[in-house]
Amino acid sequence: MNPSESQGEKNTLAKTRNLKRNTLPALTMAGPVTFWMLVFVLLPLLYVVFISFMRRDAFGGIDYHVTLSNYVEILQPVYLKVIWKSIKLALLTTVICILIGYPLAYYIARKPSKLAAKLLMLVMIPFWTNTLVRLYSINLMGQPNGFLNQFLLRAGLISKPLDILYSDGIVVVGLLISMLPFAILPLYASIEKLDKSYLEASSDLGARPAITFLRVTIPLTLPGIVAAVMLVFIPSLGMYYVPEALGGGKVMLIGSLIRNQFLVTKNWPFGASLSILLLLITLIMLWLYTRIAKLDDMEVF
Amino acid sequence: MASRKRKQKRMLFKSLSNLYAVLVYGFLYAPIAVMMVFSFNDQKVNYYWNGFTLKWYVKLFTDSSIVEYLWNSLFIAGMATLGSVVIGTIGAVGLIRFEFRLKKLVNHSLYIPIVIPEIVLGLSLLLLFEVIRLPLGFTAIILSHITFCVPFVIIIMRGRLSGMDLSVEEASMDLGANRMVTFFRVTLPMLVPGIMSGAFMSFTLSIDDVIISNFVSGPYSTTFPVKILSLVKTGLSPEVNALTTIMIAVILLGLLINSTVQAFIRKRFLTHIKSYF
Q: Which of A51, A202, B188, B209 is deepest in the core (most CB within 10 A)?
């Protein structure tokens, strides 16, 4: 037997052993998740990008001809108005969520840890009840002869029922109710981590509480603020059931527009191009997030 | 004098912040309170209070199709939790242990379902099922729910795995156990807390999901939230309030039992340990 042959035999032996030791376990363990992510996440998204450049055929199917017309259609004033309104309402919701959530998160973080855990639990419990039922309660309260108007009428604060429902304002209230926990949790996580000695140092050096808050507390909890902005802004932007439950179809947002393209009017290519737009806005937000907070600080999620 | 003033100021600040917290919690809980109160209201159209009744609860259990949708949701959430915990747990271990070509791609794609708007994931799954000609319905809903639960399970498991001492696994293999035995007898038991919180997360996400289920549920089989969405426009019947009230009661009871049991175990466990010293 010559040495090179035995060398080769050893190699194949090592290879089969290697295959048995590493490839098979790797395939069984990492295989399913790899398959799942490719088939259920990546390929469908690529397909969405693909059909956004296609045309709709007469039967609501897809006509495989490359075109940019879907993206040109977005530029029509009707749709631009819807997109602008969605961004405006989502931004408003985000800002109010932070303004309401930050003081509450601060309040919870300053409590002893056992009480803080209970208070956080109280924030989470509404989240476990069906969001739509809660929205429906708001709907009932806001009806012209509903509880809120009755109360205001009897108290003599108003002379005739207010139009509470079917307005942008009530949609923002609905978004707030469903999004506030997502703002409070990351804010709490970052405020809780804040090293108190920085605050003491700041006040020892003569800064007044307000200055300390603006120049020390806010910058140090910025990752939590940015995470809260992401967690509220992105879902609010694509949300369609809040406007449907409270806006009664009068408040049209981009989410409802996309949903209608897919489930009602069956113009899939146009719906796909709208959702690509939504994805682009999301990507810009993510990019800003990675610029402000480091991506490996994902634990705030 | 000055210190007294400061004390007063601090007291004022404290009571103001307490008041603030009460107001925010009030805002979060007002819709739930209204729903609970109206579940006992003796009137079909719930605009004002008309008197106490239990008839909606009776109706719920005698003739109501709503409960059926809740069972659908529970079944789907159970299956989706099972699927995503199995795939997620094995996958999390696999993605840490092994190097392969697609690893980076998979790791990045895990964040996609978490960060993109739900509606985009929903419509892309709808398109996928259309292309592979899978009829919309229970199977499609379960597959979709697994898709958005797996990343959460993996991220939770990763947190757990990174805090774990890997030398235990090596010790197991040095002592002659193969990978399979090591996984089931050493790795898996250490992962149980992570699996529990992953399962909890998946179940919660699945049972409350509206948007993705709405896209892939089709006309005949639907989940509880999607059914509620279609009813909200026409007006919900009060038995839905009754059902949700029961659900909240069950959740609160579960939390209470959980914390009592945990406190009990902790106490027993501590005395158990102390008895050794």
A: B209
Q: What is the ipTM of this complex?
A: 0.80
Report how far apart, in Å, the C-alpha atoms of B189 and of each of B104, B168, B185, B196 are. Answer: 28, 12, 7, 11
E strand or H helix that includes residue A55: strand A55-56
Contact check, Cβ <8 Å, B17/A103? yes
Q: Which CATH number covers residue B130?
A: 1.10.3720.10
Asked if residues A102 and A187 have their Cβ atoms less than 8 Å apart, the reply is yes
A215-237 pLDDT, tens digit per residue, is: 888 888 888 888 888 889 988 98
Q: How far is CA A196 from the centre of its chain?
A: 31
Protein fold of A72-300: MetI-like fold (1.10.3720)
Mutate to test the interface with A, among B178, B182, B232 (most CBs of A within 10 A): B232
| Residues B23-55: tens digit of each pLDDT | 999 988 988 888 888 888 777 766 667 778 878
Burial profile B160-199: b = 16 or more Cβ within 10 angstroms, e = fewer: bbeeeeeeebeebeeeebebeebbeebbeeebeebbebbb
d(CA A136, CA A143) in angstroms, rounded, equals 11
- Residue spans of the domains in chain A: they are 3-41, 72-300
Mean of the pLDDT values across residues A70-90?
Answer: 88
